[in-house]
Write a sequence for this structure.
């Protein structure tokens, strides 16, 4: 989670997908308490694009790490 605080990042499903598909995502963070279909979709996308996955316990914890106010299902660190 520290990596999210100290690096360039994106949050939210659409933004993370864009980063992965553009090959800009370094690591994707997925909250364990988000919907199962989101977890599966992100895991598959990361696997296909060889992106490292890290799991956060809750969407609240992930939002705090991203410094956003809204619970966040996924986030990613991105290349500068």
């Amino acid at each position: 989670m520290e990596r999210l605080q100290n690096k360039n990042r994106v949050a939210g499903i659409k933004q993370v997908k864009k980063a992965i598909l553009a090959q800009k995502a370094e690591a994707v963070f997925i909250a364990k308490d988000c919907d199962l279909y989101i977890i599966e979709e992100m895991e598959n996308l990361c696997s296909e694009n060889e992106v490292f996955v890290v799991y956060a316990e809750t969407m609240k914890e992930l939002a705090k790490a991203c410094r956003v106010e809204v619970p966040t299902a996924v986030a990613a660190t991105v290349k500068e």
Notes: The chain has a mean pLDDT of 93. The two ends are 18 Å apart (CA to CA). The longest helix spans residues 36-48. The CA atoms of residues 40 and 46 lie 10 Å apart.
